[in-house]
Specification:
- The structure holds two protein chains of two kinds.
- Helices cover 0% and strands 56% of the residues of chain A.
- Chain A has strands spanning 3-6, 10-14, 19-21, 23-26, 32-38, 44-50, 56-58, 64-68, 73-78, 87-95, 100-103, 107-112.
- Chain A starts with a strand and ends with a strand.
- Chain B is an all-beta fold.
- Chain B has strands at 4-7, 10-13, 19-25, 31-37, 43-49, 56-57, 65-67, 73-78, 87-94, 103-104, 108-112.
- In chain B, strands 2, 4, 5, 6, 9, 10 and 11 form a seven-stranded mixed sheet that branches. Chain B has a four-stranded antiparallel sheet with strand order 1-3-8-7, with no helix packed on it.
- In chain B, a hairpin with a 5-residue loop joins strand 7 and strand 8 (73-78).
- Chain B is globular.
- Classes of the chains: A mainly beta, B mainly beta.
- The interface between A and B is medium-sized, with 21 and 23 residues.
Chain lengths: 113, 113
């Protein structure tokens, strides 16, 4: 069975500093992994996805994530945080067995000026 | 191309009342999903459909019913609302099986008093 664990429920950074949101996954075969972002009172927007091509995946708004099979991780990073990055971020794995998305519990990112 | 739309955006119900949430997509997607989002719990799958006329239970189906009479619409019903169903409900669609992006609607905020 597939699952994802987001290691931090809250992350706070200062504007202009790097962002690291951590996600570990569990999957019995090569997974499809996603990061979604949800701004306050909004729906979910896809940031990026990994589907067994390049291990470093670039997404929108300067975010990227690296798939590391040896560490079963798919951490989300951004070199320099912006105030508009304040949101909730979800790491998600796709279950090929059931055609369902399995969501992590989310990481709330706060960005201070 | 409106993508995925949800009706209504907000609703307040009294315990025991019934209502139907409508999800519509204009992308000709086969798969559709209903999720609920509660603080600290990510998104949990309520019911889903893999095509017109089909429905299946997700992780938290109790107290909800669904119907997919037309490919573009997926209805979520609450027959007798309970305070535990206070949540934000998201609908999503998927073009076909596999590691593809799910497209999300903007959400419906439901409060049951």
């Amino acid at each position: 069975a597939q699952s994802v664990t987001q290691l931090d429920s809250h992350v706070s950074v200062s504007e202009g500093t790097p962002v690291l949101l951590r996600c570990n996954y569990s999957s019995s075969y090569s997974p499809s992994l996603f990061w979604y972002v949800q701004h306050p009172n909004k729906g979910l927007q896809l940031l990026l996805k990994y589907t067994s091509a390049a291990t470093l995946v670039k997404g929108i708004n300067g975010f990227e994530a690296e798939f590391k099979k040896s560490e079963t991780s798919f951490h989300l990073t951004k070199p320099s945080a912006h105030m508009s990055d304040a949101a909730e971020y979800f790491c998600v794995v796709y279950s090929y067995n059931t055609d369902k998305l399995i969501f992590g519990t989310g990481t709330r990112l706060q960005v201070f000026p | 191309n409106a993508g995925v739309t949800q009706t209504p955006k907000f609703r307040v119900l009294k315990t025991g009342q019934s209502m139907t949430l409508l999800c519509a997509q204009d992308m000709n997607h086969e798969y559709m999903y209903w999720y609920r989002q509660d603080p600290g719990m990510g998104l949990r799958l309520i019911h889903y459909s893999v095509g017109e006329g089909t429905t299946a239970k997700g992780e938290v189906p109790d107290g909800y019913n669904v119907s997919r009479l037309k490919k573009q619409n997926f209805l979520l019903g609450l027959e007798s609302a309970a305070p535990s169903q206070t949540s934000v409900y998201f609908c999503a669609s998927l073009p076909r099986p596999g590691g593809y992006e799910q497209y999300f609607g903007p959400g419906t905020r439901l409060t049951v008093t």
